[in-house]
Amino acid sequence: MGCTFCNIESLNIILENNLAFAIYDKYPVSKGHMLIITKRHIENYFQTKDEEKIAIMELLEECKRYLDKKYKPDGYNIGINCGKEAGQTIMHLHVHLIPRYKGDIDDPTGGVRGVIPSKRIY
């Protein structure tokens, strides 16, 4: 079966550069939720080479500009799950770029701290 993200030909790539590509998340948290994925199969962020980190960040900025024009979100969350215990389900590095919209939840305080719900509001 292989890695879902390594089968690039089967993915609908929105943007890319030499070391990474972006697709819409198959199970989006919000309208426009994108994944920035390394072309080289590595499990998590801590295995990246410096040039891959740069490529990811450049593509992240490009994706933000794209989403700003297309959906006009009010904010963003950026997240990387590293390891099963952190919630990673596909063991190929991918960065979540999640557009946020005013009113999408009652109180967005805490942002990414919400990965542990009882720790979100402080």
UniProtKB/TrEMBL annotation:
One GO MF term: hydrolase activity
Residue ranges that the Swiss-Prot or TrEMBL entry lists as coiled coil: none
Keyword Hydrolase: yes
Stored PROSITE patterns: HIT_1, HIT_2
Motif (Histidine triad motif): 92-96
A Pfam family assignment: HIT
Domain HIT: 1-107
Annotated source species: Thermohalobacter berrensis
Hydrolase found in the keyword field: yes
Keywords annotated in UniProt: Hydrolase
Name the record gives this protein: Diadenosine tetraphosphate hydrolase
Domain of life: Bacteria
